[in-house]
Design goal:
heterotrimer; A mainly alpha (about 180); B alpha+beta (about 375); C alpha/beta (about 150); A: about 180 residues; Rossmann fold; three-stranded parallel sheet; 6 helices; 3 strands; about 45% helix; about 5% strand; B: about 375 residues; Cytochrome-c3 Hydrogenase, chain B; 2 domains; three-stranded antiparallel sheet; binds iron/sulfur cluster
């Protein structure tokens, strides 16, 4: 009898002790799904043009490719409202600290798309004295879109990939 | 790393506030303008370029004349044929090569197509900065028809790498000629609509008439070229002044306006495109037969010498100063880009203007930071 | 060619210290010693109509221990628009001091600033020789000098 009571209390304590796990199982998953679903189709990129790839971003936002169909709004000025940086090409030594600053100012969760050969490895400018060989040294990158410049379709594919990643994101907070 | 983000009041001039516009700003983009403001007025403005400086000129010294082709068109991806046109003219002159007539015509066709592509981007963003959403939606969409035409001729989407030393990279396919003529017809009608909805729009007139006026004398003194110079009454057009390639075969005019304001600078682009259409039509119809390139081999031998070649790119006079010492690689490769030539006018124009006029004036200079920084 | 030659003759006869480097159709290059370049420039602008600065270039002649600065000047005079005058001067590499020509062609300001940072040429009388294209903290050799080797190479 006593043993049984003790056992019961033990179970209860275990239950209380793992309450966040339980909640995680009970409502966390649907909540995460809901939150991620909400983020998925309202990506808002920062307006940061770094080099010539920005022309293709312009074309992708234009009426022919119309990137908004896939739930990405046009580039926007306020960093606080943005959750996506599309690094449009070469990052030079002068821009690199600014890029980091911009990334740090953005609110979590945030994602980065490295667009173009330049932002992935330095591309054509591998032997230039003023170009960073890839941006992943300074900020974490979620999706790489190769090309020089990538076609607008490639950028759209990159965004769809990123959305897939967001959909499967394991935590609520982002990273 | 020291960064200058002036945003504090200076104690001695309390009214003046120093602000930095860019590089992350919808009205600047890869470029920063340092502003000193008195209320809503700009007291002083200094451009801060170099966010896209990639050292093209140094890279040019590490590559031979053929290897230089792809990276040289990157600075001005909007206008990739024209920047290579000037380079090819320079190398051709150094090598004393006679480019076949069909290649000359194809060079002109591609150069004019690129001029239209570049101007379309220019007026699209000018529309955006004026709050005219129709213009950016239309122009960005219509620009793609020209890119498609270029793709049919050259095979790549925006970086055509079509004009190379010794001719052009490949011949034009037969169906592209037909498509080109059709695109010209369609676009001519389309430009009338732009005029109605954008250039004759009273809103656009109010926002850009008399804004950022550059006088003719200042345009000469600052060395302004291209659309900026022609909007200020300066009839400079390298295509007319020294008819390179086969430009002497075609009939076209150099549009010149005299107002010198933001509206005129945007309107010159439209008039320019009209002339481009004429040239493309004449060239497509009169295309001579023959080979399209000279065999230069992967490592062309270029005799020692010095050359200054120039073409009329979309933004103005594109020039190269190439010094060769007889080795396979250029000894010195200076790219004189039109955006850098027009940059000096910016601090002059941004004096005593409203803050809201800054993006309009800035973009009306047709300034492309990637090109200016090289 | 003849007309370019005629222009060149005018310069060399007016300023005997100058030397005609080469002349091509619509192009001519004249070199002047550092002491008289300003006079030559003023003469070219006021009397010959070369009033429209196109660009300023530099060349590092490391074997001859010289730095060359070349001003390319176009013209807006009707009938002469196609001509480009290249006005050059050479200074020793270890003491590269030249005087600015902003007083002659105002548009040369940013071009000279660029040449300053790329070659380390010091333009005396220039109002602002801070970096235009290079990052603010650049403390290496000027990149376009021949003895500067790009880190990727
Ligand atoms: S990847 Fe190519 S197009 Fe994109 S920024 Fe680099 S050079 Fe320009």
């Amino acid at each position: 009898m006593v043993v049984a009571q003790q056992q019961k209390a033990g179970t209860f304590q275990v239950l209380v002790g793992k309450i966040d796990d339980v909640l995680q199982y009970a409502i966390g998953d649907p909540l995460r799904y809901l939150a991620n679903w909400g983020r998925l189709y309202s990506l808002w990129p920062v307006h940061l043009e770094t080099a010539c790839c920005s022309v293709e971003v312009g074309a992708a936002a234009g009426s022919r490719f119309d990137i908004e169909r896939f739930g990405t709004l046009e580039a926007f000025g306020s960093l606080r409202a943005c959750d996506l940086i599309i690094v449009m090409g070469t990052v030079t030594r002068k821009l690199a600290p600014r890029l980091k600053l911009i990334y740090d100012q953005m609110a979590e969760p945030k994602w980065v798309i490295a667009m173009g050969a330049c932002s992935i490895t330095g591309g054509l400018y591998f032997d230039s004295y003023n170009v960073l060989r890839g941006i992943d040294d300074i900020i974490p990158v979620d999706v790489y879109v190769p090309g020089c410049p990538p076609r607008a379709e490639a950028l759209i594919q990159g965004i769809v990939l990123l959305q897939e990643k967001i959909r499967r994101m394991p935590t609520l907070s982002g990273r | 790393m020291r960064m200058t983000l002036e945003s504090e009041y200076s104690p001695d001039a309390d009214r003046i506030m120093a602000v930095s516009l860019g590089p992350q700003h919808p009205g600047a983009g890869h470029f920063r303008i340092r502003l000193w403001l008195d209320g809503d007025y700009v007291v002083k403005a200094l451009p801060d370029a170099g966010y896209v400086h990639r050292g093209e000129e140094k890279m040019g010294e590490y590559r031979n004349y053929t290897q230089n082709v792809p990276h040289l068109e990157r600075p001005v991806i909007l206008d990739s044929s024209n920047i290579l046109f000037a380079y090819s003219l320079g190398v051709d002159e150094l090598m004393n090569s006679k480019v076949p007539p069909r290649a000359q015509y194809l060079r002109v066709i591609m150069s004019e197509i690129n001029r239209i592509i570049s101007h379309m981007y220019f007026i699209a963003i000018q529309g955006l900065f004026l709050g005219h959403t129709t213009m950016i939606t239309w122009c960005m969409g219509d620009r793609d028809f020209w890119i498609d035409l270029g793709e049919r001729i050259a095979g790549a989407r925006v970086t055509f790498a079509y004009i190379i030393p010794g001719g052009v990279r490949n011949d034009i396919p037969e169906f592209a000629i037909e498509k080109g003529l059709k695109t010209c017809d369609w676009f001519e009608k389309r430009m009338g609509e732009y005029e109605k909805i954008f250039y004759d729009n009273p809103m656009v007139h109010q926002r850009s008439d008399g804004v950022g006026v550059l006088s003719r004398d200042d345009a000469i003194a600052f060395g302004a070229t291209g659309t900026v110079a022609r909007a200020s009454g300066l009839a400079l057009d390298v295509r007319k002044d020294e008819p390179y390639s086969s430009y002497s075969d075609f009939e076209f005019k150099t549009p010149v306006l005299t107002q010198g304001d933001s509206w005129a600078r945007a309107y010159v682009a439209l008039l320019d495109m009209r002339e481009s259409i004429k040239i493309i039509r004449q060239a497509l119809k009169g295309l001579p037969q023959g080979p399209v390139r000279l065999k230069l081999g992967p490592q062309p031998r270029v005799p020692a010498g010095e050359v200054y070649s120039r073409t009329e790119a979309a933004r103005g006079e594109m020039s190269y100063h190439i010094v060769s010492d007889g080795s396979p690689r250029p000894y010195r490769l200076k790219i004189g880009v039109p955006s850098a030539k027009n940059l000096r006018a910016l601090p002059h124009l941004l004096k005593n203007v409203h803050i809201a006029d800054i993006p309009v004036i800035y973009w009306s200079l047709n300034y492309w930071p990637v090109e200016a920084d090289r | 060619m003849d007309r370019a030659k005629a222009i060149a003759d005018k310069i060399t006869s007016k300023h005997p210290g100058t030397k005609l480097e080469w002349v091509k159709p619509r192009r001519l290059k004249v070199s002047a010693p550092a002491s008289m370049i300003k006079d030559v420039a003023l003469f070219a602008r006021d009397s010959l109509g070369f009033d429209h600065i196109s660009t300023v270039s530099g060349v590092d002649w490391i074997a001859k221990n010289a730095l060359e600065v070349v001003y390319f000047v176009g013209s807006t005079v009707p009938g002469q628009e196609g001509f480009v005058l290249a006005l050059s001067e050479r200074v020793p590499r270890d003491n590269p001091v030249v005087s600015t020509l902003i007083g002659v062609w105002r548009g040369a300001e940013y071009h000279e600033r660029e040449t300053h940072e790329m070659f380390g040429l010091n333009f005396q009388g220039h109002p602002d020789q801070s970096h235009l294209f290079l990052p603010e903290d650049w403390n290496d050799l000027p990149p376009l000098r021949k003895d500067y080797v790009s880190p990727g190479r």
